[in-house]
Amino acid sequence: MSVQAQLAVRRGREAVEFYKADFGTVKLLLIDDDPQAVIDRAVGLGATQVYAAESQHGWLLGRIEDPFGHHWEIGRPLIEWPPAG
After folding, report:
1. What does the radius of gyration of the chain's CA atoms come to, in whole angstroms?
2. What is the pLDDT of residues 6-26, one digit of tens each?
3. Of the four listed, 6, 18, 56, 64, which is most buried by Cβ atoms within 10 Å?
């Protein structure tokens, strides 16, 4: 038996390396695409675009509704994230 998890985290590449080393995690997919390209691909698979990717609060961010009614924000930071505080 295996467990599959989907994860959206800060410093994702580093996090994946930690989880691989600590938990023996196997990376199946790492999305590092343009958010609008991901949205367009989802729409092609049956999702509905709620809004296109646009600049919001330091992110390029869009939203879809999947065929099951769940909303997903898809984005990437446009600035160093997290911002220095």
Report:
1. 15
2. 556 677 778 778 878 878 877
3. 64
Q: What's the CA gap between 75 and 3, in Å, rounded?
A: 26
Return d(Cα 9, Cα 77) in angstroms, integer: 12
- The model's confidence at residue 78, banded by pLDDT at 50, 70 and 90, is confident
Task: Indicate the residue type of 10.
Answer: R
Q: Token digits for 28?
A: 């199946």
Instruction: Report the distance separating Cα 23 and Cα 15, nearest Å.
Output: 11
The pTM score is: 0.63
Tokens of 31: 């999305």
